[in-house]
Amino acid sequence: MARLGIAGGMIVALAVPYLIRSDFWLGFLITVLLFAAMGMAWNVLGGYAGQFSFGHAAFFGTGAYASAILHIGFGLNPWLGLAAAAVAGGLVGLVIGTLSFRYGLRGSYFALITLAFAEVLRILANTAEFTGGGVGLYVPLKVGVANLQFESKLGYYYVALGFTVLSLGVGWALERSRLGARLMAIRENEDAARALGVDTFMCKLQAIVISGALTGLGGAFYTQYYLYIDPGIAYGPGVSVEILLVPIIGGLGTVFGPLLGSAVLHGAGELARRLVGDAPGLSLIFYGALLVIMVRFLPEGLMGLVWRLSRRRERAANA
Amino acid sequence: MLDPVILLPAAINGLTMGAVYALVALGLTLIYGVLHIINFAHGSLLMVGLYGAFFLHRFGVDPYLALLVMVPALFALGYVLQWSVIGRASHGSDQNVLLVTLGASIVIENLALYFFSADTQTIDTPYAIAMVDIGVALVSLPRLIALGASLALAAILWLLIARTDLGRAIRAVAKERQGARLMGIDVDHIFAMSFGIGTACLGAAACLLLPMFYVSPHIGHVFVLVAFTVVVLGGMGSFSGALIGGLLIGVTESLCGLLLGESLGQIGIFLIFIATLLFRPSGLFGSRLS
Amino acid sequence: MLEVSGLTKRFGGLLAVADVSLRVPEGGIVALVGPNGAGKTTLFAMVSGFIAPDSGSVAFAGEEITGLPPHLICAKGLVRTFQVVQPFGRLSVCENIAVGAHLHLAGRKEALERAREVAEKVGMGPLLDRRAQALTVAGRKRLELARALATAPRLLLLDEVMAGLNPTEMGAMIDVVKAIRDMGVTVFLIEHVMQAVASLAERVYVLNQGRLIADGAPGEIARTPAVIEAYLGHGAAARMVAQAVEASR
């Protein structure tokens, strides 16, 4: 049943560009997919392992800069740049994770230190020369599939779709693996996990590396899509917040939560823009309010709601 | 470049800026000490205070006089925010509080952006550029006032917590939530009071800061991580720690700016923050409010 | 199986465990008793690697394990349970137990399968899909035990598994512990309930204020004056002797 649903969803996702034929909505879907994929990356660390990061921009920005710099400065093919970005994001994860987890940072402290790392990187990117400083980097326009640049948004859509499938696939595999079981155990009770032979340091480290790699991939995609990156976009708190909102709205520690969360978040943001007009800060007011409301009324996210409703229907059907 | 003639004024300058950081951090450390939550909205609430003082100045109210309005106003705002939003949404989990205060800060900040635009605003006061010669260096008068005020505020907070009935109740709640409840203390009220007092400190900080600084919707960012650094460095919940931590950070920032240049200067703060969290999570002075 | 020698731990000025040496022979059930605050849980925490001792050593199956982290000690076959149960609240009973089973089984299917077997053994078969946080106290105690058991330990440290159980539940738990012993797992348990100690343990160590004050068979130590003093207060042994003399007249 679930497999049928997923197969159906995939067919729809592949066919969608031919059904809507609107550049605007295709662009919207690309954003939804990109953040669904990065939301799942956050979910690996925050949702399954229970380690909330407020600084995923550290991975996103590193991926974005890695692919841009390697392409502009060293002529690396952008497709390979995606892989390089994943490696770079994973390495940043390794460094932050090793430091934070080795010294036993948990909860709020971990959130704060990730934020601080992102800020350090932002200041460095603002100052260093090879990142273009505050001006940022422009990726030269050279349209061609081999260059990961497409004439229409169609190409980007399929790349984003592939990225999302990969990311959700990682979540799906995680739920069926020993690592996933151990991460959830750590989230629920770290001491108990240690007593049962779980090497909590190594498990959390693996989670942050996976999470960093996937988010770095997202950063590289962003650079190729917009052909521009600057320190504020790459390492600013905005992207960290947007990434963490997605799984929190959709449902922490679920495979489809990030996809649902991203669709709802960006859909609602778009709706707000249509209703009130495109004013600065407006969509963010909306995001912030949504975050408060979700934590207050639906701490298990939309997937939790879906689950509860379907159970109620089942019970009604059985009665 | 490392000439004491340059170094000393820079250090003194940093000291006075550090006093402002201490002012901002005092409220944060109180909130942490009692509620054990990390209030992410702290920077945005400071921004609210700055705009409040800014608009009062438009109506001809001197910022220092505005203290009489902004301190109670921000107290009320903090009380209501904790009582009606943060306390209810937290479900007793620290991470939820973190998310809720993050959400609140995004809302507050972008509301300001929506209504006041991203423009940086300043006020003109006759004393804004007044300098006082303290022998080794010239120090601007507003900064000197801020230094004095931060010492006074730390003392007032300490007296409030150590010597009053409210302070006793706050300490009881900080130490043992359930026990305090059994003793008949209205814990939700004490939480809201503590949060209110913490934000009231921001009202004071805003009025003292405005004559020498500027206001913009994103100004909270400038202070929020710095304030966390100060609080962590001074030991979560310690007033004297926040005071000393603030001064220390101010000097560090000023000297880093001098040595590394303006844009890299701030990095020193974050590196201190990271190092403190990793190696001395209980802070340099490590005493908790209890 | 377990050999503890000269183990000492100080918290500030408080001597929590002072120069404790004891042995747990393979295949038996040994109990550690003593009044509250005697240092029993601290001793367990040191043996299982959660706290580093100030001095002394712990040897497990002839191998020195002092100072190893808990997960490595667990991997060697020594696992503890917690006095205050620590379930993975939002995971199901089956998933809880599977975390233990994963110690030796990498595959998810195999681990879940093993978890079901273990659940049957401790009588939790019908509760497999229940969320751990929805269990009763007795259920949580069993879950704690089941998770530990799923790691296929050679030595199981049980910290007050009887506390909070009613007499019926306690009887059932005693049977479970005996069954575990009969599976070939050595058991070392902290217990307050003397009736449970008497019916389970072959040998009992008594800890008071961080020091071992007696050891022997359950029947013997109940008559040791030092033990009576520790439990009933200063002079109690003398009063009891006097009473006994009085009664015999």
Largest sheet of chain C: 6 strands, mixed
Radius of gyration of chain C: 19 Å
CATH architecture of chain C: 3-Layer(aba) Sandwich
Order of helices and strands of chain C: EEEHEEHEHHHEHEHEEHHH
Number of helices of chain C: 10
| Amino- and carboxy-terminal Cα gap of chain C | 48 Å
Tell me the name of the CATH homologous superfamily of chain C: P-loop containing nucleotide triphosphate hydrolases
- Biggest β-sheet strands, sense, barrel of chain B: 2 strands, antiparallel
- The fraction of residues assigned to DSSP E strands of chain B is under 5%
Structural commentary:
- The complex is a heterotrimer of chains A (319), B (290) and C (249).
- Chain A has 319 residues and is mainly α.
- Chain A has a domain at 18-236.
- Chain A has helices spanning 2-20, 23-48, 57-74, 78-102, 107-127, 153-175, 178-188, 190-195, 200-226, 231-235, 237-250, 257-276, 282-297, 301-318; strands spanning 137-138, 228-229.
- A two-stranded antiparallel ribbon of chain A has the order 1-2.
- The two termini of chain A are 23 Å apart.
- With 290 residues, chain B is mostly helical.
- Chain B has a domain at 25-219.
- Helix content of chain B is 75%, strand content 2%.
- In chain B, strands 1-2 form a two-stranded antiparallel ribbon.
- In chain B, a hairpin with a 4-residue loop joins β1 (131-133) and β2 (138-140).
- In chain B, α1 (4-35) packs antiparallel against α8 and α9 (219-234) crosses α10 (239-260).
- Chain C has one domain: P-loop containing nucleotide triphosphate hydrolases (Rossmann fold), CATH 3.40.50.300.
- Helices cover 40% and strands 24% of the residues of chain C.
- Chain C has 10 helices and 10 strands.
- Chain C has helices at residues 40-47, 70-75, 93-101, 108-121, 137-150, 167-182, 194-200, 218-221, 225-232, 236-248, and strands spanning 2-11, 14-24, 29-33, 55-60, 63-64, 78-80, 155-159, 186-190, 203-208, 211-216.
- In chain C, the strands form 2 sheets. A 6-stranded mixed β-sheet of chain C has the order 6-7-8-3-9-10, with helices on both faces.
- In chain C, α3 (93-101) crosses α4, α3 runs parallel beside α5 (137-150) and α4 (108-121) crosses α5 (137-150).
- The longest helix of chain C has 16 residues, at 167-182.
- The termini of chain C are far apart.
- The A-B interface holds A 52, 54, 99-100, 103, 105, 107-109, 111-113, 115-117, 119-120, 123-124, 126-127, 237, 241, 248, 279-282, 284-285, 287-292, 295-296, 299 and B 37-38, 85, 88-91, 94-96, 98-100, 102-114, 117-118, 217, 221, 225, 228, 232, 261, 263-264, 266-267, 270-271, 273-274, 277-279, 281.
